[in-house]
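Much of what follows relies on a compact textual record of a protein's fold. The record below shows the convention in full:
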Amino acid sequence: MNESKNALLMEMYNKTLKEIREGEVVKGVIVGINEKEVVVDVGFKSEGFVPVDEFIDKSKLVLNQEIDVLVESIEDDNGYIVLSHAKAERMKGWQKIVNDVNEGDLVEGRVVKQVKGGYIVDVSGVEAFLPLSLSAFKGLSTNEIMSNKYRFQVAKMNKLRRSLILSRRDVVQKERETAKAKLWEQLEKGTRRMGTVKGITDFGAFIDLGGIDGLLHITDMSWSRISHPSEVVAIGDKLEVLILDFDKENSKVSLGLKQIIANPWDGVEAKYPVGSKIKGKIVNIMPYGVFIEIEKGIEGLLHSSEISWQKKMVNPQEMFAIGDIIEVQIISIDKDAKRISLSLKQLEANPWLEAEGKFPVGTKTEGKVRGFTDYGAFIELGSNLEGMIHVSDMSWTRRVNHPQEILKKGQSVEVVVLAVDGDNRKITLGLKQLTPNPWADIAQKYPVGLEMESEVLMNSNFGVFVKIEDDLEALIYSSEIDKPIAAALKPGDKIKVRIIKVDVEQMKIGVSARLNQL
């Protein structure tokens, strides 16, 4: 009787147990939690254990919570069921992928670790491989990569082997194309947009507007004059720019930065009237002048000709230094061309207005040799005035090829004022006029017909120059000497000549080597 009763009870008990198989995903209830394991009741005669590490967020585990588990083994050595929650999730995820995803489709996932040649991505509990060449994670750290979810394209899928290869690069490319098309529709002249500096050249900077690159030209960066775009922007800078113009067909966008702020040139004529004196800072020095910042965004040019009343060209680099503060006068403004001309010399009285009174024609004065040209020497006279001695006014009788044959730089010399032109800032000086004109005496000393021996000084294609006496030369024209004789002459040779002409007014002596012809 008792045996029959026990058999009946056993049969009833067995009917209450679920029929489970290894490799099957079943539902279970958490009945216990400890530091290492989670105890799960799956309705079998014994309970199963799941390693606690298989749960991403252990803090969310609670008793009586229903979870999915994979039956790995119905009974281990201790008689317990071996369960896996992680594998159950992967199987569910893979099944979902098999049912819903094909190659080329987009999926969402999170990078869980970096491995050799790429990354492991969790896609709905399934581990997928993302090759490094398809990752498009350039410039991001591993922590940044693993802290965000991303969209991927299924590059290759093997359902039998449960293998999934992803591509982030293709998704990024499509996102860029979509963003680019959307941005072109949104672009409008005169609107402002945020952008990031991605490249700098000598002529400007390229700004990434979020899929489209625009050019911020150097002339549109600042109202002030700049030498290079790097003075205003740096790669990686985020800045607000103005859309000046765009050409969708040629993918060109022109941007402006200075246009966002007020144009400092507006009202410049009223603020800085011509003739007013202002102080400014030297920001650049060139051979032709000095650029002076009057205020932020406004610069003027102090040309080298406006530095001193002296006619000589000064070297600004020897007189000024960048950062110097100097006072100048406004002499002209061209608002449209954004040019302001400045003067330093206008702050002083024009010495040329009094030049005729200080240096009357015919007076003798003393000056210092400042420099030379091929045709004369410049003489400093004081009071910011200078004059010039032409080579023709250096000697009554000597043929001067270059003024340095007579004078030396820095030499003090007495001169005669020959002419003063204050309007054109010219003073003509003479050196030979310090002594009487000797040509009347020369005409008497060397009458026409006089024969004499002379020394060859120079042989030219139009004649031969000979020495009559010290600092007195004569020219034998080619017509007055036989060609074979002329060709054979060289400096230092002696030749007999006859005086054929003395021009007192032109201060010239003509001689002939044809002595036997009257």
The chain has a mean pLDDT of 83. Residues 169-186 form the longest helix (18 residues). The chain has six domains: 18-88, 102-172, 192-260, 268-347, 351-434, 439-512.
